[in-house]
Amino acid sequence: AGYFFTQFCERSGNKLWSNSIHCWMDLQMYHTLFYADVLDPFVVRKKAQYIHSRFVVAASPEDIGCSQDIRNEVYKNIDPPFEELFDSAEEYILHVLVVPWQQMIEGDKYTYSKVELFEQKRHLETKSKQLLRLQRKGLLRELTITP
Q1: Which residues contact 53 (CB under 8 A, 6 or more apart)?
Q2: What is the DSSP secondary structure assignment for residue 53, as one 8-state letter?
Q3: What's the CA gap between 4 and 42, in Å, rounded?
């Protein structure tokens, strides 16, 4: 959908928002692995470890700032990975992203309210084949329309 929300979070300068949206996008890719034609456990494990080390671990490169309980839950259940492994982290992320989403929507509403709308009327003349045929036969006379 154009990644407008992702760009909004990145441009906001808020590291938590930016990290959260990146984590959420990676989690969506993680979920799609379970619906592939062939489930590759190696790929699923690598993706789960990547998400855990990149976003969930404290002081990680893109730490999402989740609670220690969430970190422990993911760490304890990471092997073997399963589809619902990051559900608590994802729920936390969605709570974080509600604020920037509302700000983006309010900004869009404000911008839209500033757009100047004007009404323009146009006159379009069309003649149907039936009308032209009747005029040629002399059954109808042509009207001249003045603007």
Answers
A1: 60
A2: I
A3: 33
* Residue 61 near residue 89 (C-beta atoms within 8 A): no
**What's the whole-model pTM score?**
0.76
Consecutive H or E run containing 41: helix 41-51
Tokens of 50: 């990547």
Phi-psi group of 65: left, alpha or beta (phi > 0 → left; psi -120 to 50 → alpha; rest → beta)? left
Tens of pLDDT, residue by residue over 61-106, are 999 999 999 999 999 999 999 999 999 999 999 999 999 999 999 9
Determine contact, residues 100/12, Cβ cutoff 8 Å.
yes
Please give the distance of CA 72 from its chain centroid, rounded to a whole number: 30
Q: What is the rounded CA–CA span in Å between residue 139 and residue 135?
A: 6
pLDDT mean across residues, the chain: 90
Q: How is 114-130 classified by DSSP, letter by letter?
A: HSPP-----------HH
